[in-house]
């Protein structure tokens, strides 16, 4: 695993040890950023199921100003912090060891987010509920983009609480669905 492009491009990233997370492959990561970017002029991102932190770190490498990474597993948080250290710019990242639901509640009142990465455990996919909570708590910026990485059984709807599906691509068992916020 590595940072594919941008100012940190080519640097290696660690995966979370064990079977509790599955890192996004470099091929899928490159495809995601080609669909939503590929580069950014600032903004904030939120990853509620950060795992190794690869998607958020890639986003900052490509121009996102600040990334908030959330995971509830100690091993994931340890890996995220090690991967952030590779960037040598920890000031661009905020790491929270908590559940997605708790993070959303704690983030209420902060600046809204422009990019959301959703890569929850496939069997515990709660994207629709999480998005409703983000909107209710005022955490979604105008024209925000949502990236959902699921398996083929997720069957996400065409629209989620003001987000409209604009792209969907299959990569083996992984499905990437891109939504844009219409408010």
Automatic annotation (TrEMBL):
Transferase as a keyword? yes
A GO molecular function held by the record = 16S rRNA (guanine(966)-N(2))-methyltransferase activity
Q: Give a Pfam family name.
A: Cons_hypoth95
- Classification via Gene3D superfamilies: Vaccinia Virus protein VP39 (3.40.50.150)
Q: Which UniProt keywords apply?
A: Methyltransferase, Transferase
> Origin, by domain of life?
Bacteria
Q: What class of enzyme is it?
A: transferase
Entry's EC annotation: 2.1.1.171
Q: Please give the PANTHER family that the UniProt record associates with this protein.
A: METHYLTRANSFERASE
Protein name (Swiss-Prot/TrEMBL): N6-adenine-specific methylase
Organism ancestry: Bacteria, Bacillati, Bacillota, Bacilli, Lactobacillales
Name the gene.
Answer: rsmD
